[in-house]
Design goal:
The structure holds 2 protein chains of 2 kinds. By secondary structure, chain A is of the alpha+beta class. Chain A contains 15 helices and 17 strands. In chain A, helix 12 packs across helix 13 and helix 13 crosses helix 14. The relative contact order of chain A is 0.06. Chain B has a single domain, classed as Chemotaxis protein chec (3-Layer(aba) Sandwich), CATH 3.40.1550.10. Chain B is built from 5 helices and 8 strands. Chain B is globular. Classes of the chains: A alpha+beta, B alpha+beta.
């Protein structure tokens, strides 16, 4: 092993403080770094006790640390985070420093065991400590922000219906309000497909449009009827938003729902005849006026029908109003069931019904109405009372006022009534 | 592929070395800190890194706050020594070592660090002496934290296996007790296995 020729030069060149003391605290070595940073020259301190220069050090603790180092022949340490400084040294950093005094790491290493001597090394860890303080401050800030975010998240969770799904519609997350609304538990919903809420009343075309929109990375808004886990039907205003990953590719879907069940119920009541559950006259008027006003090619090719239950007054007088009502409901159901899905049928008033057959020729309309007439003819109230109806039919002439169409259809009905009833007359 | 499994002979030998080391640590503490304590028979477990937090939480009271002091050691057998002491015990330690009625947070931290250093140095030095190898110790650092923050799962995510050597230190007179964990992972486990084999070979030929 090569002995170091000039250990003093080596220790003086280090950027840390090194002193050698014994268990009586007598200093036998003091390097250049210490001389500069403490302003105590080597010549002044060597041979003297550290106590004379630094009476503030807890010498009981220092003694114990020296003994530990000597007895178990291992370095001992002071706490690097301590605000108590081993030897207080000013810090000269001018720019942005939060530390006025040098933060030190103090290590006491065994030196010459039989002379009870140790080397006390002091490292300046101020920069590291400052970074640590800054990090602590920033972490505290992040924690505060997170707490705020958590509180806001809780508000959102309890007050907004939200659902998140995978690209294939598997539920990933739902809010508490969503669970309450759909009468289910979060654990029961996660992992299931969103189709469990689907109502058969919403046309497939709506779902197709929704799916195509979100697949093309656009948001979709609209009204959907859904079923809760208990089978209760509810209407929701829905906005589905695609979530993109860092490469701009679809990763998930997120939807926000707003309950519009009550609004839908009210709207339904407003346009529904309470007895027959068909649309009422006000709704029919609204639709026909809209079509006549806008004259859209897709809408104006309709035929108009007015149906009147034959001998209705006689049914009422003979069997009572209750049976009369039953007859009206039966005729309404028969009309609804024998017409096409997109045809519009409403109660016009009393025992009269009005029908709009969409996109038909007069011949087609006649054929449809003959079938409808036959269907009404098969009705038997209480298995005994037969019901028939007379029908006036006309085709809307593009550009004409709706009153003219109604006038023609009235005339046709009048003729049907006067020519024996239970028939379809065209005008 | 590193072999991280220990056979029965290796476990027996390790237990024996740890017992010797724990005995040495108890003697050091009595001598240096003037406190006569006992240490329980150490438990040695090899577990997945993801289980570490749970293993430690299962040995302490989850409602207390703790001073958790960690000290690294490097060498052929390297790792981390962790000493976990409850707030109450740490205060008692601060009182004992600083000889004051109400020790400051700095006093307590320093006392805990001092105790950890003596424990780590004695146990690990003695263990490595038995295994004919050397280690270097780093400055310990202490944190005052709740039971669930002692080991964060992110901290150990990169390791596959961990050896936990744990024991309880108990100074009845001073009402101080704490848990000591010596943690080592992957390559160090393999090194430990090799060192133990060499030692067994040396003893039994």
């Amino acid at each position: 092993m090569i002995a170091l020729k000039y250990p003093d030069i080596l220790l003086d060149s280090l950027e840390n403080g090194h002193m050698i003391i014994d268990d009586k605290f007598i200093v036998s070595y003091w390097n250049r770094w210490l001389s500069i940073n403490t302003q105590i020259p080597k010549g002044e301190i060597i041979g003297k006790s550290l106590k004379e220069f630094y009476p503030g050090i807890n010498y009981k603790v220092l003694y114990r640390k020296i003994r530990t180092a000597l007895v178990i022949n291992t370095p001992t340490f002071y706490d690097t985070n301590s605000s108590t400084k081993f030897i207080s040294m000013n810090r000269n950093k001018v720019t942005t420093s939060s530390l006025k005094l040098m933060q030190q790491q103090v290590t006491i290493s065994p030196y010459i065991l039989h002379e009870n001597k140790v080397m006390v090394s002091i490292y300046d860890i101020s920069e590291l400590f400052e970074a640590k303080l800054l990090l602590k401050k920033e972490i505290a800030k992040v924690i505060r922000l997170n707490d705020k975010l958590e509180a806001e998240k809780e508000i959102i969770d309890k007050n907004i219906m939200m659902i998140k799904t995978s690209l294939s519609g598997v539920i990933i997350d739902v809010s508490t309000l969503f669970c309450q609304f759909f009468e289910s538990q979060k654990d029961n919903l996660i992992g299931k497909n969103i189709l469990i809420f689907k109502s058969p009343d919403i046309p497939e075309a709506t779902y197709k449009e929704l799916w195509e929109t979100i697949k093309s990375k656009k948001s979709w808004s609209g009204e959907l009827k859904n079923k809760t886990s208990n089978g209760v039907e509810k209407w929701v205003q829905t906005r589905v938003t695609p979530i993109l990953d860092e490469y701009g590719e679809l990763s998930e879907f997120s939807a926000v729902y707003h309950d519009i069940t009550n609004e839908k119920l009210l709207a339904q009541l407003y346009i529904t005849d309470p007895l027959t559950k068909l649309y009422n006259r006000a709704h029919f008027d609204e639709v026909i006026n809209f079509i006549v006003k806008h004259q859209r090619k897709a809408d104006v090719g309709f035929a108009l029908v007015i149906a009147d239950v034959d001998y209705f007054k006689s049914i009422n007088d003979t069997y009572g109003h209750q049976v009369g009502d039953e007859a009206l409901v039966s005729v309404a159901n028969s009309l609804k069931n024998s017409l096409r899905e997109n045809d519009l049928v409403a109660r016009w008033g009393g025992e009269e019904f009005v029908i709009m057959l969409k996109n038909v020729t007069l011949d087609e309309a006649k054929m449809i109405m003959e079938k409808v007439r036959e269907s009404v003819q098969k009705i038997k109230i209480n298995d005994t009372i037969s019901v028939t109806a007379s029908f006036g039919l006309t085709k809307y002439i593009i550009g004409e006022d709706a009153n003219k169409t109604f006038k023609r259809v009235d005339e046709a009905l009048y003729e049907a009534k006067n020519s024996g009833r239970n028939r379809v007359v065209i005008k | 592929m590193v072999n991280l499994e220990f056979n029965e002979d290796q476990i027996d030998a390790l237990k024996e070395f740890i017992n010797i080391s724990i005995g040495a640590a108890t003697a050091s503490l009595a001598n240096l800190l003037d406190a006569f304590g006992t240490m329980h028979i150490p438990k040695i477990e090899v577990c997945n890194s993801s289980e570490l937090a749970h293993k430690i939480e299962s040995t302490i009271d989850l409602k207390s706050m703790y001073y958790a002091t960690k000290q690294l050691f490097t060498g052929k057998f390297g790792g981390e020594c962790m000493f976990v002491i409850s707030e109450v015990s740490a205060k008692n330690l601060g009182r004992h070592l600083y000889n004051v009625t109400t020790p400051s947070r700095d006093d307590i931290n320093d006392a805990v660090i001092e105790l950890t250093n003596i424990l780590t140095s004695t146990i690990v030095s003695r263990l490595t002496q038995e295994l004919n190898t050397q280690v270097q110790f780093f400055v310990p650092s202490s944190q005052f934290i709740d039971a669930y923050s002692i080991v964060s799962s992110e901290d150990v995510a990169d390791y596959s296996k961990i050896i936990i050597i744990s024991t309880i230190l108990d100074f009845k007179d001073q009402k101080i007790n704490g848990n000591i964990y010596i943690l080592t992972k992957d390559e160090a486990i393999e090194s430990l296995r090799v060192l133990i084999d060499r030692k067994i070979e040396e003893i039994y030929g």
